[in-house]
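Message: I would love a firmer grasp of how sequence relates to backbone shape in proteins. Thank you; the sequence and its tokens follow:
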Amino acid sequence: MTLQAGIVGLPNVGKSTLFNAITRAGAEAANYPFCTIDPNVGVVEVPDDRLEQLATIDHPEKIVPTTFEFVDIAGLVKGASKGEGLGNQFLAHIREVDAIIHVVRCFEDNDITHVSGKVDPISDIEIIDMELIFADMDTVARRLERVRKQLKSGETKVREEVDALVKADQALSNGVPLRRLEWSKEELLVLKPYNLLTIKPVLYAANVSEDQVAEIDLPLVEVVKEAAAKENAEVITISAKVESEIAELDKEDRSEFLKEIGLEESGLDRLIAASYRLLGLITYFTAGPKEVKAWTVRRGTKAPGAAGVIHSDFEKGFIRAEVIAFDDYVKAGSLNAVKEAGKLRLEGKEYTVQDGDVMHFRFNV
């Protein structure tokens, strides 16, 4: 499963610095968990201590974490929805991602000019929101014009589409991003083909200076949190500059550096975990002497769907899944001990995968 979060922001907010830290340009992928698969796509490992715990049980030849992709969206300026700056490129890329990481400048620096002449997080957020709203208004209006002509047919699907589009149009006309509305599953299904920008979930990354990274109750960050609370969005405080320094260190030096600046984990690790939550993702594991591997699925995925993440044949020929809860596996200390304790379960096609499940699939093609 390949899911992507697009990193957006106004010029000079630290977006590119953060993305460069994620991709660690020039690094050898074999020696570092970050790599670049495209000029504007960075792949990063999802940190998960459970992999190491499973490895102490199975002593595998290799450990394979699951990954997450960040996309560096082209810079945005006011008027992007009308093609200003790199607006067309910005909008095209953001339509393809599953979620948005909105980097907001929360630091003062006289050497780095702000595009609006002053540091104002709320204004920055509103500029991007309005450009996305304008773009969605155009998409919705064009579709409404077409589909309203089909109303005379009396088809239920046509009426449902018109109703959903009208609901969207009214919100957008009032300057309200679509993610702030309550949508039924049916409505979301109707709107899905249009890849509307403001319906995508958002996570705010409040970019602070190097000397503020370990501080709490920073005034500009608090302003972002207040704005995010209106749409139940999460805010991660991060210093792109610090992350770029951390990216140059090996694992041992990284831990020492974090201790020195008063952090338990890097901002990037917190950003990855928050992005995972934003998209409703969970992790299940496969474990054995050859490898211990983490796999990503959406919360609510049934066992056959989880099997299909490994290979489509696993889903097509799914028979059953052998499932062990992570805590039971670690407590037992071995597969045989799990079986003796009666903690290995046989689950069928209707089983909903749980975060941390250790699974083995039986299939026949």
Notes: DSSP finds 14 helices and 13 strands in the chain. The two ends are 22 Å apart (CA to CA). Residues 121-148 form the longest helix (28 residues).
